[in-house]
TrEMBL record, chains A, B:
InterPro entries: Acyl-CoA_Synth/Transferase, ATP-grasp, ATP_grasp_subdomain_1, CoA-bd, Ligase_CoA_dom, NAD(P)-bd_dom_sf, Succ_CoA_lig_flav_dom, Succinyl-CoA_synth-like. This is CoA-binding protein. SMART domains: CoA_binding (SM00881). The keyword Nucleotide-binding applies. The keyword rRNA-binding does not apply. Pfam families: ATP-grasp_5, CoA_binding_2, Ligase_CoA_2, Succ_CoA_lig. PROSITE patterns: ATP_GRASP. Residues 509-563 form the ATP-grasp domain. Keywords: ATP-binding, Ligase, Nucleotide-binding. PANTHER family: 3-HYDROXYPROPIONATE--COA LIGASE [ADP-FORMING], ACETATE--COA LIGASE [ADP-FORMING]. It comes from the Bacteria. SUPFAM superfamilies: Glutathione synthetase ATP-binding domain-like (SSF56059), NAD(P)-binding Rossmann-fold domains (SSF51735), Succinyl-CoA synthetase domains (SSF52210).
Length: 727, 727
């Protein structure tokens, strides 16, 4: 629908396409055949010594060139005096020198055609104004030369498979699983690695992204998503910098079926404050991130332990196509109750066992065991392990079982007898199989892992991780077949003339109407005769409203009259609201009076939009009345919204129950509400160059199949925008 | 207020007082000077061998008498052949024999005046019908002899301070802190002990209460609360058996200022099912327990790790009278953000630092550190530890700081330098001081504990535990000065005549009125003339309702007419509702027509009551309308309610915001609502012998200072009761 006020901005499309960032090649960084260490020194613990120490420790097979004018030899390696003496085409430079020296050094390295670099040095954007300037110059260097730089202010990275380590990590990485981890906090990354190690698992790839000079968090995600030997990608993120990259990276993860498990921090205002002063990240609004992650099936975890448990589970356990409930097989009734409680808390169903399963279990187990799920096989079963294994097998074969958790504790002396049986089961089943062996020794854990068994540490943590896997599977089925790509959106882009103020209600609604969103029948009139005429045409009852830029809160000013049922009422009210307008503001400039069909049957809700600095237009849906005011019952997701997104948003509201109908009211037209959300999303995307905020409040959701009508609408241009109170 | 239908049941009071359970003396159990082991055997691992092995290992100083007809000597102890050969007055008997042998053995032991016993044997109430009978006989034995028995089906107990262990625990307890732990699941108890040990702490007292033959969970709580050397009491509980004991135990904990930290399981239906089949506990409704624990300032934790972390924190950290916010001092910006996020999530305030503190920190710390809370001292501070200590001291001295968490990670090599400084700070401050040293080695943890420092393992877990301590302190201030004891309640007990059916609305409301609860002015009439007369007396508008036992849903039957404004309307409506009643049910028996003052200005809510098998009358408060229907916005607490309880209940509702006033509606009379809750609580307690359910729905909360009126009321006698749909 193209009308007078609309032009297609083709030039802008072209400009955007040209601006698409040059792809940086991270291959030489993570798989270097040669490494130079600038400012290298001898020893074990110092930042400048650590990379060489770790490379040697890990047995890196490529060539290493330490550079330091002070030495002729470091740890047996001939030391190069000047960068200019380095051979050309070295894959990776490790830079551990003063911030002010970093750029000149990189430029000299560029002349030797170095292919990538990692900068440990701090003193860039995290260090205030002067650092910010250095950072900008570094970013520019990367953009112009196409040489990817990890950092600055980075702990570095490793790729254990190729014994590459370019880091001053205080740990010596050893355990390696097909897991990649990216962290915006070096310290947090180290901690997560330590915690995961204590659980018997390790990262293959690890990268501390530091201040992200052009190469950002999601560049790494993209790179790791493409690595065939990587199964799971995890990360700690304070904020993303580039929406397009993030979208592309997540799309790639979906395409490659690589779960992306993120701990997003900076939810709180105080937290966000800290994030800015810490790595100068643009920490977006937590609820937008959460909405976005749900939309994209990114697994968001809540704390350190949920992070490593979930990474562990996705790494070790199978995710079959089977659907059903969770079976719990425990040697402790207490643990069974704890796990059942947690299943309920997380909305995971316990499997209802088939009668055949129950009777088989009855045969296998002693009389005082519980053959109902949670199945308490009792500690006595340890005296006849075949019965334990058979009970697990029988339960796994039940068609209603999607995942099974076995609980055991302590008793490491039994490990050599139990673990082979559990390993065999883990290998044979195609269902998700978890062993929660609480208080297991290092040796027991190692043996479980070696046997391909997914181990988790406590009843509660097992179920918390499992819920992430099960929810991920379910959401995967819901993802739209094809994503709404940026290019597609651009080709049908329609933009209204930029408008920098606040549009009046009538004009705003006309814009919505152009996008196929219903508004009440009506017209804008200049005198009472026209008002009566319009009223007769559209039919009583009607609403009258004075339009004026000086009157923002119309009801307070007494310039709205509703439910007018006759010509007389229209005439009287017309006069009255004009008088009220004059009383409210003697200098009032009246743009006209709106005569509109009175709509009353339906549920009032609200739809809004804001422009987020990262996500661009985000669409908010809120329940009406007390729900939004008392409970903040809103949901927000970045545009574009698909119909699936819109439905998910609606379903996530507490007010969804009201939409579906309660107390003889409803059901309401949820399908039309979803369609309206998608239309608003399209509108906001198209108008994003000038539109800062949108507020359709109330939007009336009518009875099923009766549609949705925007009763009031406010559009705010960018220059005028202040944050609306609902955010 | 005593009226015709009411009698004071003095006999019943007396009966109840007499029935108060005999106090059992647990002293010989936990501090025995002599122990006999019935069915003892030699070795390390077997259940029958384990107690002797552990007693020797721990170096028990009392006398041990193994009893087993098969041996003459066990592990160097002369073995006694028959119980009858035992000396008299042995303090404790450990019984590890077949279930069927337990009672005869106990009887023989009783003849030798044994003072207490622990029974490991299973095959009692957890094992179905035959076991249940054995259990009953065992309970009776305890009641009649006054010999306390721990178990049956118990893992046993220990008291490390006196090297007493009467357990077949597979661990060898060693670490000991002033902590007592009671568990209804032996396996869970063992796990918690292992987890706590891994954190460098241990229980002094541990008891697995098993099937609780008369001596139950709260008997142990009472005993431990009285031990001067015990600081913290923790537990795993599936259900309580005796409200009076529980109340008394909790009161004692409060009185002794001993925090009681419980993990209550069996929230889910499935979980509860498992609980019953596991230790045959009476698992009550989870929400009632939660309400009760809040009321009593019992700390309820959500999972295994929160349990041990919270126990650890209460054990090691100080709880001063200082009020304020939490200060975070970290070497990692990331950890600071994570902790700040968690503070927000749990409703803990971050301390706003005083300008003096900030300037002192600025002097101490490098330019790139963050001197705002969370304070990022940066990892560099490790090179000048005095500055770290001084930063902590300066921050602790800030008047706005109530608690301080220092975050550090790894770097155990620095422990010898850091820990003395942290210990000194911990000893000097009177504020809550926590060191979260993530990835600390065993040695580091031990050194921290030895230095009196409270250590916690991760940023998220530190804040989760800390919130329990801070909330505990705040609630302590809110506890009523004097508890409403059972005896006090009984002395003014007033009971209506038992009523086994469903009372009609009018009668129900008269009962409420007798307890000082407002109901609309009105009367019950038999004919239209009386109706008009009453209407004129009370003033229009009025409501008419037909009273009949055959008509439960009056509105549906068309026998209610509201907002009648004149004599004519009353006459017409009177006729109409009688006709409708006849149409609804041709055999209808009409008890009369209620003429009532029409009340409409206010907020509709609901108050209800059910009889819980354990807690007795519990009072439910629910928001009105969509809040209760869509959100289940209700809160339930056992009677008696104090005014503080009532206020807390009201404040805990989402609908509290509505009561306080929104959108120009309200505020409403919250004080009167609280008073009404207390009156309902008194009513339900007084009538508990016959009253099963009560439903005041709606109750109209009028504008501030205008009161609260019960618009409708239903009372259900015990024999008739079915569960109301709102539970």
């Amino acid at each position: 629908m193209v009308n007078a006020g609309v032009v297609i901005l083709e030039e802008e499309i072209i400009k955007e396409v040209i601006n698409m960032k040059k792809k940086l090649n991270l291959e030489p960084m993570f798989s270097p055949k040669s490494i130079t260490i600038i400012g290298a020194s001898a020893g074990v613990g110092k930042i400048s010594a650590r990379p060489l120490f770790l490379l040697r420790k890990l047995g890196y097979q490529g060539t290493i060139y330490p550079v330091n004018a002070k030495y002729t030899e470091i740890e047996g390696y001939p030391c190069i005096q000047e960068i200019e003496e380095l051979p050309k085409d070295i894959d990776l430079a490790i830079i551990s020198i003063r911030a002010s020296e970093v750029l000149p050094t990189l430029e000299r390295l560029a002349k030797r055609s170095v292919k990538s670099a990692v900068v440990f040095s701090s003193g860039f954007s995290e260090a205030g104004e002067s650092g910010e300037e250095l950072q900008q110059r570094l970013n520019k260097f990367v953009e112009e030369t196409g040489i990817p730089v990890c950092g600055p202010n980075s702990l570095g990275f490793f790729n254990l498979k190729e014994s590459v380590i370019a880091s001053f990590l205080q740990l010596e990485p050893s355990r390696m699983d097909p897991i990649a981890f990216i962290t915006q906090s070096g310290a947090f990354g180290t901690l997560s690695y330590k915690m995961l190690n204590d659980m018997g698992t390790g990262y293959q790839y690890f990268v501390s992204s530091g201040n992200e000079a052009t190469v950002d968090f999601f560049d790494y995600v993209q790179y790791f998503a493409k690595q065939e030997d990587i199964k799971v990608i995890g990360g700690y993120i304070e904020g993303a910098r580039d929406l397009e990259k993030m979208n592309e990276a997540i799309r790639l993860c979906q395409h490659q079926d690589k779960p992306l498990i993120l701990m997003k921090v900076g939810k709180s205002e105080k937290g966000a404050e800290a994030a800015i002063s810490h790595t100068a990240s643009l920490t977006g609004d937590a609820s937008i991130y959460s909405g976005f992650f749900k939309q994209k099936n990114v697994i968001q975890v809540d704390d350190e332990e949920e992070l490593i448990d979930t990474v562990n589970l996705f790494n070790k356990a199978k995710t079959s196509s089977q659907r059903g409930g969770v079976a719990l097989v425990t040697i402790s009734g207490g643990a069974g109750i704890v796990m059942a409680d947690k299943c309920e808390q997380y909305g995971i169903e316990l499997a209802e066992l088939m009668p055949e399963t129950t009777s088989k279990l009855k045969e296998l187990l002693p009389a005082f065991a519980s053959v109902k799920n949670p199945i308490d096989v009792t500690a006595q079963i340890m005296q006849d392990l075949e019965k334990l294994f058979e009970s697990i097998r029988v339960t796994l074969e039940d068609d209603g079982v999607e995942a099974l958790v076995v609980y055991n504790q302590l008793g490491d002396f039994l490990a050599p007898k139990i673990i082979p049986g559990l390993s065999e089961i883990a290998q044979q089943t195609n269902k998700t199989f978890v062993v929660c062996w609480a208080g297991a020794s290092e040796q027991t854990k190692d043996a479980l892992f070696a046997g391909g068994v997914c181990w988790l540490p406590t009843p509660s943590r097992s179920i918390r991780a499992l819920k992430n896997l099960l929810h991920y599977k379910r959401r995967k089925g819901l993802l739209p077949k094809q994503d709404f790509t940026v290019t597609e959106r651009l080709t049908n882009r329609i933009v209204m003339e930029a408008f920098e103020g606040i549009t009046n209600e009538y004009t705003s609604k006309q814009h919505l109407k152009n996008y196929g969103i219903s508004v009440p029948a009506g017209s804008i009139v200049k005198n009472v005769e026209s008002a009566v005429k319009v009223a007769e045409e559209i039919g009583y009852p009607i609403v009258l409203k004075v339009l004026s830029r000086q009157i923002v809160h119309k009801s307070d000013a007494g310039v709205v009259k509703v439910n007018l049922k006759s010509e007389d009422e229209v005439r009287n009210s017309f006069e009255e609201i004009l008088i009220n307008a004059g009383k409210y503001n003697p200098q009032v400039q009246i743009e006209g009076v709106v005569v509109e069909k009175m709509m009353k049957e339906g549920l009032e809700m609200m739809i809004g939009s804001i422009q987020d600095p990262l996500f661009g237009p985000c669409i908010l849906l809120g329940s009406g009345g007390v729900f939004v005011e008392v409970l903040n019952d809103t949901v927000i997701r970045p545009a574009p919204l698909t119909m699936e997104d819109a439905w998910e948003m609606i379903r996530s509201l507490k007010g969804y129950a009201v939409l579906k109908g309660i107390r003889g009211q409803g059901p309401y037209d949820i399908q039309a509400l979803a369609e309206t959300l998608v239309k608003v999303s399209e509108f906001c995307l198209d108008q994003q160059d000038w539109l800062q905020e949108l507020d359709i409040n109330p939007v009336l959701v009518q009875a099923a199949k009766k549609g949705v009508t925007a009763l009031d609408c406010l559009l705010v241009g960018k220059r005028t925008a202040k944050h609306l109170s609902y955010l």
